[in-house]
Amino acid sequence: MRPTFLALAFAALPLAAGAQEGRFTHADTLRGSxxxxxxxxxxxxxxxxxxxxxxxxxxxxxxxxxxxxxxAAREMQIDLSQRMTVDSIVQDGARLTHRRDGNALFVRxxxxxxxxxxxxxxxxYHGKPVVAVHAPWDGGFxxxxxxxxxxxxxxxxxxxxxxxxxxLKDSWADEPDSQRVAITVPDGIMDVSxxxxxxxxxxxxxxxxxxWFVSSPINSYDIAVNAGKYAHIADSYEGKNGKLTLDxxxxxxxxxxxxxxxxxxKSMLACFEEWFGPYPWYEDGYKLVETPHLGMEHQSAVxxxxxxxxGYLGQDLSHTGLGLSWDYIIVHESGHEWFGNNITxxxxxxxxxxxxxxxxxxxxxxxxxxxxxxxxxxLRGLRANIENDRPVVGVFGVxxxxxxxxxxxxxxxxxxxxxxxxxxxxxxxxLRGLNSTFRRQTVSGEQVERxxxxxxxxxxxxxxxxxxxxxxxxxxxYRLDGQTLVYRWSNVVDGFDMPLRVAVGGTPWLIRPGxxxxxxxxxxxxxxxxxxxxxxxxxxxxxxxxxxxxxTR
Length: 553
What we know:
The chain is α+β, with helices and mostly antiparallel strands. It folds into three domains: 1-32 and 306-471, Neutral Protease, domain 2, CATH 1.10.390; 36-235, Immunoglobulin-like (Sandwich); 475-550, Immunoglobulin-like, CATH 2.60.40. 25% of the residues lie in helices and 30% in strands. The two termini are 40 Å apart.
């Protein structure tokens, strides 16, 4: 998901206040932690059935939860918004009792839960789900009509959580192995959800059920309802794993425009398969679905609302002009199929794994289209958007995202790491290796960091700590003392020793500053100009003679 600056402020400030003042609630802990009532069971399959009534903005349905028993249990935590009324919870044909604690249901188990066994429980419910005001940033249902009056309603729930409209273990750390999504909507419109369409069933009561099936693990927030008067444009792409089906669902009134704009999906797939490895969901296909909100990375059914414009709603976020030759939402949200959907953070505190890599993928796409120098210029242009308001990594265990700098700062951190590695073939192997090593897994940010360090052959832990856990940008301080370059890092974490490329008098040098002053005698300094490689995300300060000589820090 890509927030605008206004929406980012709207969405992130309450979380920032909580993080700064330590005022997380009991509800935050229930949602964000692996409680004892969650830890004993592992989601295996969700069988979701929802009937949607746009007439009164209500839903009614059930979810069959199949799970594997990991340990002893008395209660089972199932998450479902307080706005939803539970009709019944059933296991083995018997109704179970439950108590509600905010948005969490604690279900009392009646039958033995044998470790290693696979069990199922079904929750029947109904209600009026939360209505999104600023989708996709605040989240919920969006109820509207298209320009000719047809009903059009969709969901977007990444931050607020899937439990706003269906019951499940609402945790990024636990994905089902597969899922059915059966959505019943009024006749005359269709639903487009994740995976492949298995069947449509006219119900004879003015409604039709659209049954979709996801054969792969999937993030709960990716499950989406998209209902409207859609056209269907079928295409295919010959990719690294064979033929990939492409299915585009614009509103029928936008079909001709969409045929032209959505053609960009093929160049995006070619670029990202080259850099990140095969598209992760060949068995479920690739879809673009028009939505009344800007866009979301719904797995195998990417939500698109960029109004068929290049750029980000016609603007270039890099301020270089390079972002105006391609559709931001097609590229960015599809990039999440690799980073966010294939590789998923266990905790929203590590959301940089989703957004940092996917923002970086924009620069990779520019590189594919216009060359390496252009890709680098695009990424450097994003730096103007960095706010350094709070750390990129959030607070763990309380459903807390870090700073919105996870996008631009995360991208430029990765761009810097590429130039530390200084071997494009190795860097490409690292990006591909992430997607194969952690294929369809939930991970911690530390796992990703360790993998990159191991494959790069150098310890990057201080680099990650600097850019992810502080608001400081490394400052390279230097001065020339005759033919001797005197230099150090400041404004950095303890032990920071990132290598840096500089040119002195036009001659390039690779140096490794520390936090104490160092001196390197150069054979020649030419005109004495010291230029730091701009692809390293640092600031540069010319030190005073007294400061450098005294070794002050």
